[in-house]
Structures are given as structure tokens and as C-alpha cells.
Amino acid sequence: MTQQNWKDHPVSIAALAIAGTIAVGVLLYKEVILPTHTLSLSNEIYTLSKERDELKKEKLAQNNLLASLKNENQALSKQLINMEASNIFITENPYPAGIDQVRIGDKLTKITEIYNKNNFPEASVEIEDDKRYVTVRNANSAFRYITYFINEKKPELTISHISFSGFSMENESSDILQERIISAFGRPDTNPHGNLYTWESAFNTTIFKLHKDSYILMERGYAPGYWPEES
User: Fold this and answer.
1) Distance between CA 101 and CA 109 in Å, rounded?
2) β-pair type (197-201, 143-151)
3) How far apart are CA 24 and CA 2, in angstroms?
4) What span, in angstroms and rounded, lies between the C-alpha atoms of 48 and 29?
5) Collapsing DSSP states into helix, strand and coil, what is residue 217?
6) CB burial string 46-83: b at 16+ within 10 A, e below
7) How many CB atoms are located within 10 Å of the residue 217 CB?
8) Torsions phi, psi of 160, nearest 5?
9) How far apart are CA 178 and CA 186, in angstroms?
10) pLDDT tens profile 160-172
11) 184-207: per-residue pLDDT in tens?
12) Virtual CA dihedral for 125, 137, 196, 224, nearest 10 degrees?
């Protein structure tokens, strides 16, 4: 019996064929598939990095635009405040321009009728539980607060007096409100009690001013409880 070379054995031939196929596969993966896949990943990473950089630039541009718009809005707000503060009174009217629709003697209901979201989008109206007074906020750039005091003894709940407060202006080094009142109504009435000032004004009213940022408007003949009696 002739001895067969192991290389000629069918099993050996199959094993060599498989080994050759594996070797070719490994070589193909290392030399073709892997470099191609690596290049593809590199391109994808580059594209994603570029998109990320573009998004960063876009976000920075949006932030810069937002900051610019915010600064512009603040500048316009200051201009509005200064404009309204410079033109508080028109034709000797003791009620500030723009918020003169509700007056002493009007009913409480008129406050909510006038200060609605259509007329004053930024304003808020707060009615105290026992309806002794109503506070309107942010209806005017010059005066942040308007407080309407109600005569609860009257069934119709009418307004007895009004406080305009929170006066603001970019230049607060001087008493701008005092200057505006004097410009509209002249020098204050003689008052020996320091910084307490009064002016007789139209619509049968009297202006009382104690603080730099506010004044009270009352029907003539009446005065705040803390106001000293004239000697």
C-alpha cells in the first residue's frame, strides 16, 4: 500500500483552502476594508466637527443679536421714561399724561374698565380685599405705581384721592418731579414745614408732595392725615 502525502489528504487540502481564504480575508480587511472604513469615519467626524463649529458660530451670532436687541430695548425704555417724565403734565392738568382717564370722584369699577390689557398690556390691577384702595402697577413709565383710595362709606365706592409714586428718571441727582410740578403749576404755596409742598390745581384739586418720587392728589379742602395744619 502506497503511503499518501499528508498534503494530499482531503482534510489537509480543505484546511489549506480555508486558511488561504482566511488569509485573503484578513489581508483584504487590513488593506482595503479597514482603511476605507477609517477614512469614512474620519470624514464623518470632520463633517460633524464642522457642523458643530457652524452651530457655535450661529449661536454666538444669535447671542450677539439678542444682546444688541436687549441693549436697544433698554435704551428705548430709558428714552420713553425720560420723555414721559419730561412731559408729565399737559395744560395744567394735575393728572399725569397718559394715565388721566381715572379721576377723583370716579367709581371703583372705572379703574378696571380703563386699565385693561388692550389699553395697558403691561399693567396689573390689585384690589385690596376690603376695597379701601386699588393699586395699578406698570401703567406708566414715569410712575410705576398708582394707588386709588376708595371711599368705602359711599355705596358707589368712589375714589377719594390718588397717590402717584415710583417716579423714576435716568438722572436722579436732582428733584425732577419737583421741577416738573413747578413748571406746570408755579411755585408751591407758602408752607413753613420744611419739604412739605402744596399746589392748588385744576379740577378742584390740591397737589401734596413730600417725597422725591411721589405726590398725592386730593379734592380741594382735604389733606393727608399726616399733613400739618397751617398755623
Assistant:
1) 13
2) unpaired
3) 34
4) 26
5) strand
6) eeeeeeeeeeeeeeeeeeeeeeeeeeeeeeeeeeebbe
7) 21
8) -95, -40
9) 10
10) 999 999 987 665 6
11) 999 998 665 678 899 999 999 999
12) 10
Element (H, E) at 127: strand 124-127
Looking at the predicted structure, is the pLDDT value of residue 177 above 50? yes
DSSP letter assigned to residue 107: B
Confirm whether pTM is higher than 0.85. no
The CA distance from 69 to 221, in Å, is 50
Cα of 100 vs its chain's centroid, Å? 25
User: Does residue 173 sit in helix, strand or coil?
Assistant: coil
Q: Is 168 exposed, middle or buried (0-12, 13-18, 19+ CB in 10 A)?
A: middle
β-strands 133-137, 124-127 pairing? antiparallel
For residue 193, give every residue at least 6 positions away whose Cβ sits within 8 Å of its Cβ, in sequence order, or none: 228
**What is the spatial distance between Cα 216 and Cα 199, in angstroms, rounded to a whole number?**
11
Distance of alpha carbon 206 from alpha carbon 146, whole angstroms: 17
Residue reference for cell 464623518: 44
Q: Which residue has the cell 444669535?
A: 62
Task: Based on DSSP, count helices (H) and strands (E) in the chain, helices before strands.
Answer: 4, 7
Q: Which amino acid would we find at residue 190?
A: T
As a whole-number percent, the residues of the chain with pLDDT over 70 amount to: 72
Helices within the chain (DSSP H only): 10-28, 34-86, 108-114, 176-185
Is 167 buried (19+), middle (13-18) or exposed (0-12) by CB count in 10 A?
Answer: buried
Amino acid at 36: T
